[in-house]
């Protein structure tokens, strides 16, 4: 079976790559382990399930309306894991149908089975009907990642579990220790804290989510602590053990022992390609099972590409989709205009989103910047929705006024960030937000309020500069007067 490109993995990167290649008239094959697994981890274990569960938590706990109807407002008094999973099957089934329909309409040939390289151009697929040998002029590895599961951690899927297993819990635990304060760990930690679970987060780093704006993360931590969450930073975990029927203990390097009903272990993810036999293709993954790729997403075997989570940071579904399209354009010499401005979305409670530079990055680069900020409590829509703690920050260059970064926390943060992303992409300035008209009342109005805040700060700065100039002029005039001859008459003195 000869193809222009063989794609291993049907997640966001693999899907979009397959469709893009098909639209160029190429013969395309895509390989997935099992039929129900089409869509990859994103659809079945990661992005879609976790965000669907988050939405259920926000609805059932009445979180969005607590400040409107009092903090005790709830739609359901006793929430179960079954309640949280109620919508998962419907969403997954709908998305699965869309994926199959898109691949079928575009003439992509789908192979279901375990894949492995037999040579740099050949992939063998162990299907139910026998083994198939596929030859690809190009090959894309888009197998994604899976949770890291060190052998010394006694995972059982009930008391001690990873992020793939958490959606299958039978009951909501009374207490939980989250080992690992990365994006996945923090998202699940705050979800369960919102349900009333006693949550403790352990992480070996001194700061959480260091790639985000510090003020935004400080606001997130403040909210998390108001839910009763405990953070123990700079703590390395040396052991986890289960005792009794439903309890677990976590031992730290510093000598602490923490006990809870459950432990969620989320310390990193590894490439999901153990059976792919990379050596036969001339590839060697790193210690975490990831593939090295250049800017064009080529591995060191030029006709083999990598895209999605298996190539590492940022490991976002949205970025993976663009990486898949980029691979096809590069492989088949099609133009591809890449945008460097990739937005990040963290579906914590409240959600966080950003695009562009942080204050820390601009400070380190010695770029003169100013900040315009808007608080949700200043926005009518913020009052209506009951979110008074959210905020939007615009970072811009003090001299050129160009937008350098957008950072938001609160309701709809992952939506409104795209307004700033668009303006930045076209080299826009803070003046755009001052002059633009936004629907009222909306969260997007934050941009205008932040722009007014920015210009108020700039006007104060101009007053300072003008006062300095006035003082310099006065000093020069006084100095000139002091240098004049003593016999000047009164009229000449007044003129000076």
TrEMBL record:
Its EC number is 1.6.1.1. It comes from the Bacteria. Residues 3-324 form the FAD/NAD(P)-binding domain. It is found in: Cytoplasm. Keywords: Cytoplasm, FAD, Flavoprotein, NAD, NADP, Oxidoreductase. Conversion of NADPH, generated by peripheral catabolic pathways, to NADH, which can enter the respiratory chain for energy generation. The keyword Methyltransferase does not apply. Belongs to the class-I pyridine nucleotide-disulfide oxidoreductase family. This is Soluble pyridine nucleotide transhydrogenase. GO terms for molecular function: NAD(P)+ transhydrogenase (Si-specific) activity. Its cofactor is FAD. It comes from Gimesia maris. Residues 342-450 form the Pyridine nucleotide-disulphide oxidoreductase dimerisation domain. Gene3D superfamilies: 3.30.390.30, FAD/NAD(P)-binding domain (3.50.50.60).
